[in-house]
Amino acid sequence: MAANHPPSSPLSIHDMTVAYQGRRVLWDIDYDAPAGKLVAIVGPNGAGKSTLIKAALELVPLTDGEVRFFGKSYRDQRSRIGYVPQRTSVDWDFPVNALDVVAMGLYRKIGWFRPVTRTFRQQALAALERVGLGEFAGRQISELSGGQQQRVFLARALVQSADLYLMDEPFAGVDAATERAIVELLRELRSQGKTALVVHHDLQTVAEYFDEVLLLNMRLVASGPVDQAFTAENLRETYGGKLALLDQVGNRMRNPNLTLP
Fold first, then answer.
1. Cα separation of 215 and 12, whole Å?
2. What is the pLDDT of residue 87?
3. Helix-strand-coil percent breakdown of the chain, rounded to 5?
4. Which residues are within 8 A (CB) of 188 and not within 5 positions of it... i.e. 6 or more apart?
5. Of 133, 164, 134, 165, whose CA–CA distance to 150 is shortest?
6. Residue 136: burial class (beta carbons within 10 Å; 0-12, 13-18, 19+)
7. Which of 116, 137, 145, 216 would you call most buried, defined as having the most Cβ atoms within 10 angstroms of its Cβ?
8. Long-range residue pairs from 74-78, CB within 8 A, at least 24 positions apart, any chain
9. How far apart are CA 234 and CA 65, in angstroms?
10. Which residue in 254, 176, 224 sits closest to 42, CA to CA?
């Protein structure tokens, strides 16, 4: 890792390039996540937001570059990292209940192919209760609503007691109650000194929900505190010609009390 990347950073990316079938989808990404902050990863469809997270977690291979978590490789630090995948990427017909899914987040502590003891089941149940789903512990995941399924995966990440959370579109397709629950949970994690990087699509809530932003469109356009990096100029560079939406967001940033359609 290059010397200018601090080893204390929860996530350091150096010159990350990722290609699918010979076509580059991320180019030369260089980024250090700040500790104890909520960071929105923002960009248009196809910008490589999900790929950034998956490549950092070694779910897709790097073409070039290097990734470090707290100064070490992912494999050395995976117990400190919680991951919430896109809900649409999960097979929700798999025959397990909500408590079973959450307990999967404890397998590194339990050990693979070993029974889940009462102590670990209590930890999993406590995580479900934190996201408001304690009464659904025995419910098959296929019987849960989309918002409830998303909360189950949040609980699975929580039970790991990680220091860094990577979340891929946790707000997508959820109801208002689940969105509020996710925001409260993120703020609770931040109060505990945790860091969260969240792929996020709703530009109108970036300033309300997050401390920092990473603007991405195959390349890193800008990153930093929301009040510095989340500017109309950076948004136009990230999104191109969608100026009507960007003008609305710009007005929202200048007037936080403005209600947009």
1. 16
2. 77
3. 40, 25, 35
4. none
5. 133
6. buried
7. 216
8. 78/108
9. 25
10. 224
pLDDT in tens, 44-55: 999 999 999 999
For residue 244, give the H/E element and its range.
helix 243-254
Tokens 């250090």 sit at which residue? 32
| pLDDT higher than threshold 90 for residue 167 | yes
- What's the pTM? 0.86
Looking at residue 5, its pLDDT comes to 78
Question: Tokens at residue 73, please?
Answer: 């490789």
Spatial separation of the C-alpha atoms in residues 32 and 9, rounded to whole Å: 6
Nearest CA among 212, 207, 221 for reference residue 254? 207
Residue 1 β-bridge partners = none
Q: How many other β-carbons are positioned within 10 Å of the β-carbon of residue 127?
A: 26
Distance CA(6)–CA(97), nearest Å, equals 41
Q: Is 11 helix (H, G, I), strand (E, B) or coil?
A: coil
Please give the Cα distance from 75 to 66 (Å, whole number): 13
Distance CA 186, CA 160 (A): 15
Residue type for 152, please?
Answer: V
